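Human: We require from you a protein record containing the residue sequence and its fold in token form, and nothing else.

Assistant:
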Amino acid sequence: MKTNHHTNVKKASPTLWRTVCLGFFVAFSSCKKENEQGTHFALKDNPTAMTVTSEGSSQTFTVQSAGIWKVEPLSDERWLKIAPNEGQGEGTFTVTVGRNTTPEPRQSILTFVVDGKIQNNVLKIEQEARDESGGGDDAYVHLDGLPGLEAPEGGLHGRYVVRSTGEWKIEIPEGTDWLSIEPMEGRFDTGVTVNVDINTTPESRTAGLVFYLDGEQIPGVFEVIQEGMEVVLYEDFNWLTYGSAIFYTTSGETRIDNWSTAELARGWGWRNPSADGIPSTYARQGFVKLGKTNYGSDILSPKLSEVQGTQNLRVSFKAVPYETAGGARDGSVLKVGVTGPGTVDVSEFSIDNWPNYTLDPNCTEIWKAPETTRSFTITGATAETQIWFLGGDYDLRPESGAPINKNRIFLDDILVTVLK
């Protein structure tokens, strides 16, 4: 039998009625206040700091919250990892601090965001400096912990860190002019730049680097290995020495139809003249410029005589758009194609890696940047195939309907290889 227990409101005393109403309003007020303040967030046991020795360490923290939370450092630090850095509801995250091989202590601040709102809680991460006396630490020197380095056939320009417990030095074997490292010596952790030239031969090549720590040679060698490739054509234009390497300095640049007989004998020409009947392609210091005000221009490669029968090819090249010293920018369209047999998989590129004359006033570093290199493939090429590059279009005059009347493009390092 079901028994109902209830209170007859009509018969309830005034005191009881006031008590019920008061409880309702207190509960409503409490809920409203919590909603206004946001979702609750706390770290279990309320830690405010994590102190780590120079050896490094990991620690797990427990989140107490019902919302969606994120852990956000005030600045990105390579020596500090957080996993996971976000979650929902009750959960944990682990802070891992790497070994500090520098003579300076370091710190970071972790902040917390819940449901899109930053919290008052912070967690300070502090790590001691390396003990200069050694303190029994194992001595080491290595390149970012890598067992070796495999460089692509097309070359490499990369930033790495030599990690060390003391004074270090690197030796490159004699005759290895295709590899360079800067700097080649230092103290403790040091950023280095590794440059590997393009390998235009079918043979792979290897360099065994020797590391020294505090004047003593480290056993073993660090191998840099680069595979070879079947090269059909490689052009770096280093035989052109006109004008300036600085993009906006146009004095001294020389139009292609005024190149010397020896330069034209290398086989580079033009597919069509500009709309004014002039081939407006110019030689500079080891590269070429396509186009001028109101007119675009092209350059046409020699025939790919090294192609055997019919082959599929990969074409890579470096290109930079024109920007004046004052920051005015040209159009950034580069069209590509072939004459003779073959079809391209990409016919147009947006060349949007704009130069920065403040950081790179001599216009040298931009040629090394990875984003400067682009590529496309040719299907069905033969020894009669030629490749062309066109900046924008031949007629860029306003009356032609062109959206912009300047589309100058700088071009260099054209590499054509057989697809494997």
